[in-house]
Amino acid sequence: MAFTLKINGSSHEVDVDGDIPLLWVLRDVLGMTGTKFGCGQALCGACTVHVDGQAVRSCQTRVDSVGDSAVTTIEAIGRAPQGAALQKAWLELEVVQCGYCQSGQIMSAAALLKDTPKPTDDEIDAAMSGNVCRCGTYQRIRAAIKHAAGV
Amino acid sequence: MDRLILTEQIADETAMSRRALLQGTGLLLGFALTGASTESVFAAPASQVVENEVAGTFAPNGFIRINPTGAVTLIMPMVEMGQGVYTSLSMLLAEELEVKLDQIQVQHAPPNHALYVNSIIGIQNTGGSASVRAFWTPLRQAGSVGRNLLIAAAAKRWNVDPATCRAKDGVVFDASGSKHLSYGELAEAAAKLPVPPAANVKLKNPKDFILIGTRAKRVDSSIKVDGRALYGIDTRLPGMKVAAVAISPVLGGKAKTVDEKAALTVKGVRQVVNIDEAVAVVADHMGAAKKGLEAAAITWDDGPNGKVSNADIVKQLEEESKKPGAVARNVGDVGKALAEAAQRVDAIYQVPFLAHAAMEPMNCTVHLQKDRCDIWVGTQAPTITQSLVAELTGLPKEAIKIRNHLIGGGFGRRLEADGTVLAVKIAKHVDGPVKVIWSREEDIQHDMYRPYYLDRLSAGLDAAGKPVAWTHRIAGSSVMARYYPPYVKDGLDPDAVEAAAEPPYALANIHVDFVRVEPAGVRTSWWRGVGPTHNVFVVESFIDELAHAAKQDPVAYRKGLLGHNPRALAVLSLAAEKAGWGSPLPARHGRGVSVQFAYGSYTSQVAEVEVAADGFVKVKRIVCAIDCGMYVNPDTIEAQVQGGTLFGLTAALHGSITFKDGRVEQSNFDSYLPMRIDEVPVVETHLIKNAEAPGGVGEAPTAIVSAAVTNAIFAATGRRVRSLPIDTNSLKSSS
Ligand code: FES
Ligand code: FES
Asked: Which GO terms describe its molecular function (chain B) (predicted)?
């Protein structure tokens, strides 16, 4: 099946079965490896991308469900003001360790700040608890979200 | 004469490393440092090789490459897996080389024992919290050698005494400061000068450090916030296929039936590879490969381990641990002291098998050809990996090219080459490069686990409550006996007893031994914190039991036994003070303490917990004091204390791998639970500054945290936790 996907502002043609997860289309078919595979079961958030501004787990998003929605990945999140602010805060607070989960963390945080520009701790917990970091950078993730949000 | 030989040897090693790099084993790990845009990263092949061999490159040793364009490349002997080692090792080099961190790029070292061995471990392995300790002197020497040669080249050009010149930020200045030449301009001339022996160069007095000891920014951050960082799993090569793999659920089992035809009908699937122990479906992309693997509906022949169960493994440990083991320490007369003691305390402790569950699942890309084998992988053990692949393929080691990568979490898992070996076995049947990726389920169910240990302890207290006898028997698998057999002498595994053989306390009569018990059907290996992760939990829990038996405060009791050990006493006092030890807490709240000497560092933690009526444990705050001697980057240390603590705490609260019918019962993050952001406590770090030799940090907080938490649970509830993970059912309020 051929699909035309709108990703980071440009169109991409792919020819795969409709039930193939968006994650593998991004990583293997289109070579955009910033979006990570962690669990394949919507349990870790490493694969988080935005579909029409909503954070979704691309490992559980069938490519035929995307339609002409706009997909944004970590490679382009810096073009959005929340994404840029978060990336800057991530660098200022030295959040990353191995870094493998951080694409997903930033994508979840960007979706949070878009809808909730001044999140409380509880709102951060709710938006971010789907994102696992085995290196344990959570304390700095929380601080960086607040830093980016100016709270 | 001696010096001449040494010079020759160094020159030879340099040539060797240059050859290795020329063969393309080095990778640029990111592009941020050279200022390239995101777009060009996607255009660039994942395996872009640094242009090392630009004519006139200055390469005085295995660690420094400066080419005439001015690019300064530092080659990292240890691999980056989050611990910040590319930053701290760069800082050691840059301090003496006199370059700024934003003037360098870093590169993964190829396997090369002679150039890049970790002197503490004896192999080019990243582990044991040993990187800074092992490279503290060699990298500063390497930097100093480089700086001296660049200064000498400038002095020669200006016809002045090198002693009158100085270097700063990659530029050499003459005495007046009016003449200056950049390192790039000097590279070609410096490359022609004889290299002095590293041991002969002068190093800065630590009080003159300008970079070491500062909160310098990580060199790998910017590529990790916008998707540019390349991990092994991100490898992309022309013509590459992707393989999903199913490994026999029981160790030693074989595939019985594979519906190859069904797999091949899936769009994008190219090939099914059955190597008995595993089946791989090779496809154009992972989505097709996974779908094909499901369609293959594999059934398995379990083989001899189909009956393995946790209950049997524990029963075996219970039995074997009744027999004496290899003696790790025997001081005084424990038998007599125990018999004469006023009070006796006995306990059995148990800790479970643990998976590593790093966020980047196991993966490896292999291109096997007639005369060479190229490997793209993130590994903590490049030389071991190279040797094993050579053995497996029958090719000479030089034909095995290991391209190391950033690792998406190591924790010891990537000290093992089993993932690479499996990928090579699959690649033998595939034409062209193939990337083998394990699912999360495969990753958790075919890990090499932290061993299950069962410990028996007894202590005798005198009338004043002081411990006059201490015996500790550890029973479990010996990772060391399999991994580094020469380090095991007379059956004694030094890792299995580390931090148990020599507790920090004054114990006049002590006997510690180790009984090796290998569980059938289970592979064991290194896990963050290694031996001390289990031993410190046991020792620090038991000393807490003794304090209770002696009716003394846990901190005061420990202090009374640390008079001879000022550094341990200092971290304990600092942690207790910062945590507000002794200040009142509400009901079912408690504080617990633990103290540790391991990896060359002294650490103490105080945990504060609240135990709900239903037994739920909320860890509210962890205060950590650490004395790791002279240190490189305090920000990295704080990050490691935060992350390392959570790694250990996750295991204490949730971590357990169990076996039933030879199979691992956990499979993904819903059954092998990671801590999440809504669960984590605040972790505070208090760093002691002194001039002692550097100690390791990455594992210290992981090893120490469990006991602090379980001791806090005891303080809150009066219930002693003697096995992990913490069983919240046993902590329910009786009222
Ligand atoms: S890979 Fe999608 S949530 Fe884990
Ligand atoms: S930084 Fe390593 S998993 Fe989050």
From this structure: oxidoreductase activity
How do strand B180-182 and strand B171-173 relate by DSSP bridges?
Answer: antiparallel
On chain B, the residues whose CB falls within 8 A of the CB of A101 are 359, 408
CA of A45 from ligand 1 middle (Å) equals 5
- Residue B586's contacts (CB-CB under 8 Å, 6 or more residues apart) are B610
| Nearest Cβ partner for B221 among A74, A96, A103 | A96
Mutate to test the pocket of ligand 2, among B81, B223, B233, B359 (most ligand atoms within 8 A of CB): B359
The pLDDT value given to residue B130: 94
Domains of chain B: 5-224 (3.30.365.10), 232-303+362-437 (3.30.365.10), 311-353+449-731 (3.30.365.10)
In this prediction, residue B7 has a pLDDT band, given cuts at 50, 70 and 90, of very low
Question: Distance between terminal CA atoms of chain B?
Answer: 82
Considering only CB atoms, B680 lies closest to which of A46, A96, A138, namely A138
Q: CA–CA separation, B181 vs B153, rounded Å?
A: 10
Is residue B2 predicted with pLDDT exceeding 50? no
* Out of B21-25, B52-56, B60-64, B492-496, least confident range: B21-25
Question: What are the backbone dihedrals phi and psi of residue A56, each rounded to the nearest 5 degrees, phi first?
Answer: -130, 160
Rounded-to-integer distance, Cα B619 and Cα B487, Å: 38
Q: How far is the CA of B443 from the centre of ligand 2 (A)?
A: 17
Contacts of B84 in chain A (CB under 8 A): 97
Cβ of A22 closer than 6 Å to ligand 2, yes or no, is no
Q: Which residue has the tokens 């929605």?
A: A69
Judged by CB atoms closer than 8 Å, whether chains meet at B224 and A96 is answered as yes
- Of the residues A25, A57, A103, A107, which should be mutated to test ligand 1's pocket, given the most ligand atoms within 8 Å of the CB? A57
Cβ neighbour number for residue A3 with a 10 Å cutoff: 18
B615 pLDDT exceeds 70? yes
ipTM value for the complex: 0.98
- The reply to whether residue A139 touches residue B285, judged by beta carbons under 8 angstroms, is no
* Integer Cα distance of B18 and B20 in angstroms: 5
Domains in chain A and their CATH numbers? Answer: 2-72 (3.10.20.30), 77-149 (1.10.150.120)
- Which residue type does B164 have? T
Residue B268 forms contact with A (CB below 8 Å): yes
Residue B240 CA to residue B186 CA, distance in Å, equals 42
